DNA sequence: TAGATTGTTAATCGATTAACAATC
DNA sequence: TAGATTGTTAATCGATTAACAATC
């Protein structure tokens, strides 16, 4: 898995989507599928599907297509979903709590072992059986519990320092919901979920589609009121 | 904004990040910046910055660089952040509630006006002043309140039908947290936040970096226990 | 003016699509 | 065998980087 040719980020980002569609097919008791059929379902070209999959091996068979169960399982292994992952949530606010309460993660093997926060009012509490600890206990906890992933859901002012500490203590990956870019050693992986950025790109596209110049579309119902600018999120 | 040459998705996705960095510079009372300086901060090439910005106009000045406040404001206008947006949350579960409680959206002008759910136990309740309504009331509400964006945070089995209805009723954009691809008319914009997919790509990268073959890295502490496969999220 | 830095064209790189021989 | 469909090479398309004349 290591010495082979590097897989492009575009391909990696599509893998979970393939996995999802194959899981759905499996649910519908469909046993085989061709790249052409799958391409129609997924709205991508058959060529791209074959190219993507062939990065990892020849999973299909000429004249037949792909065996759904087999391919589903292969992608599962490729994504590393055939093992458990220990995770912690750093920052017990809205999003942190929502993620702890999201039971589907556990079913997939993504196990949240603990939450860390600085707020004495929530330290000691339990969220769906997961205890909230003082951040002061984080170094010791990580070293004793082989934590793979830290989920960062804290204010951006604190995220950078915390991420540095976590990297030092051996966390391999950060799932970063804090609205800031982290600076970590290259052997620590970061995946950003910048919700505000995501929403902004949606708004851009809405404005582009429904812009004033275009008489073809419904009238934009924009209000010219200037919102208060936010400085810390 | 409409008849001009189409902006590439890659550029659009970078706009919020430019906006964020310029906001930070403004905070630090930095009045001007060159593409070279900004490139060092953002870890992208100066060439890319100049190319990106020039899609929208010549905001800089030779020999000087860019005026931070001016450029910040121009990007704000490009992204359409100089107006308010009315949004509703469809699905009052963990994530839906967390988003309602996230006060920074409102400060930016992203206003959540109402939550809709089918659960009688939460209908009538109020989350940070935002009322939870019965989904039966959604059509009427949307038609009377010029809703721009629907935030979908419901189980995937229900999301597709709801998205269809919302499109019919005139919602312009969907911010989709449901783990399914929506099929909507082309004048309705969809931005997906597939949290499970995002986490999976992180895990892929962790496995690639810390794979068994590699003796250079820490030992992977994987457990060979097979998690229960989840069918509905 | 001289130095700095943009805006923009050209070159390179990477990702997607097309085509087709191999083969089940 | 004949038809279908893969795996893979080649062609195209798009995005990034480099280079530099224009100009503040």
TrEMBL record, chains A, B:
| Positions bound to NAD(+) | 91-96
Q: Does the keyword Transmembrane helix apply?
A: no
Question: Which SUPFAM superfamilies did the record assign?
Answer: NAD(P)-binding Rossmann-fold domains, Winged helix' DNA-binding domain
Signal peptide (residue range) = none
Gene Ontology terms, MF aspect: DNA binding; DNA-binding transcription factor activity
- Write out the GO biological process terms: negative regulation of DNA-templated transcription; response to redox state
Give a Pfam family name. Answer: CoA_binding
- Name of the protein this chain belongs to: Redox-sensing transcriptional repressor Rex
Lineage of producing organism:
Bacteria, Bacillati, Bacillota, Clostridia, Lachnospirales
């Amino acid at each position: 898995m290591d010495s082979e040719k590097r897989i492009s980020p575009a391909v990696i980002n599509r893998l979970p989507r393939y996995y999802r569609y194959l899981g759905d097919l499996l649910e519908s008791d469909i046993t085989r599928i061709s790249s052409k059929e799958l391409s129609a379902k997924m709205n991508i070209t058959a060529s791209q599907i074959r190219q993507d999959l062939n990065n990892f091996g020849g999973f299909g068979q000429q004249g037949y297509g792909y065996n759904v169960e087999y391919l589903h399982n292969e992608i599962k292994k490729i994504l590393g979903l055939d093992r458990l992952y220990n995770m912690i949530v750093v920052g017990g606010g809205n999003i942190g709590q929502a993620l702890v309460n999201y039971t589907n993660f556990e079913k997939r093997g993504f196990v949240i072992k603990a939450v860390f926060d600085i707020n004495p009012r929530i330290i000691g509490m339990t969220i769906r059986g997961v205890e909230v600890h003082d951040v002061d206990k984080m170094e010791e906890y990580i070293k004793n519990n082989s934590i793979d992933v830290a989920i960062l859901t804290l204010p951006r002012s604190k995220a950078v320092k915390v991420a540095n500490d976590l990297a030092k203590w051996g966390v391999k990956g950060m799932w970063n919901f804090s609205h800031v870019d982290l600076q970590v050693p290259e052997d620590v992986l970061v995946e950003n979920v910048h919700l505000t950025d995501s929403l902004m790109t949606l708004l851009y596209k809405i404005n582009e589609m429904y812009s004033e110049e275009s008489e073809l579309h419904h009238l934009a119902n924009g209000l010219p009121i200037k919102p208060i600018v936010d400085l810390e999120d």
